[in-house]
Write a structure and sequence with these properties.
Helix content is 14%, strand content 17%. It is built from one helix and three strands; from the N terminus they run E-E-H-E. It is globular and about 30 Å long.
């Protein structure tokens, strides 16, 4: 069980929509929607709920992709 973030919080790719960490800690993208999360936030939700849906767009998360920093 988790609580969704309030709709009045502005979501962006620089902050995690679950824990609100800014910058995102170990950034990962939820696929197929492309929204950014902290690795641990996304991984624990996907493990505890195999049909976890993105809290930003409600799309079922099928995969996680690590975001590499550009140098």
């Amino acid at each position: 069980f988790f609580r969704r973030q309030s709709r009045d919080i502005i979501m962006d790719k620089d902050s995690c929509p679950l824990c609100a960490a800014k910058p995102i800690i170990i950034p990962y993208v939820a696929e197929p929607c492309g929204h950014h999360y902290c690795y641990y936030c996304l991984k624990t939700r996907c493990i505890s709920n195999r049909t976890f849906c993105c809290v930003t767009c409600n799309t079922e998360v099928k995969n996680m992709l690590h975001v590499l920093k550009k140098h």
